[in-house]
Amino acid sequence: MKSYRKELWFNVKKRREFIHITPQVEECIRESGIKEGFVLVNAMHITASVFINDNESGLHHDYEKWLEGLAPHAPTSQYRHNVGEDNADAHLKRTVMGREVVVAITNGELDFGTWERIFYGEFDGRRKKRVLVKIIGE
Ligand code: ZN
């Protein structure tokens, strides 16, 4: 069995953003040389997510509105976590959107449904953060 590990780094300019990372994950699979196996992609921060969904801007707007309705950023004083920081909403948003995805690799490609794509979800940006890509297989 072969294994491969890489970190993808992000420095999002805004507090919140969704970034399409399928091309970077495909590049990792090519670099790994693994044809049959699994790829794990996870955020290494508790205020960011990795998730799979449609690469469609209307949906991303809908996510933003929905998440802000569930856990509004302001007023920051509404959260007990916000003592000396202001990112309680980001922790809650990350919980809803998930930590990681695992995708099968078949014949050297992501074995996806038609519209599945991988995204990095940032909920407390404006600093360097990273995503782990771990691939195992043959
Ligand atoms: Zn925090």
What's the SSE blueprint?
Blueprint: E1 2-11, E2 17-20, H1 22-32, E3 37-43, E4 48-53, H2 57-70, H3 88-97, E5 100-106, E6 109-110, E7 117-122, E8 128-137
Antiparallel strand pairs: 1-8, 2-7, 3-5, 3-8, 4-7, 5-6
Zinc ion is lined by residues 81, 85, 87, 91.
Global morphology: elongated
Spell the H/E element sequence.
EEHEEHHEEEE
Uncertain ranges: none
User: Mind telling me which CATH architecture this is?
Assistant: Sandwich
Major sheet: 5 strands, antiparallel
Mean pLDDT: 98
Rg over CA atoms: 16 Å
Bound molecules: zinc ion
Question: What number of structural domains do the residues give?
Answer: 1
**Head-to-tail CA distance between termini:** 5 Å
Alpha-beta content class: alpha+beta
Q: What name does CATH use for the topology?
A: Jelly Rolls
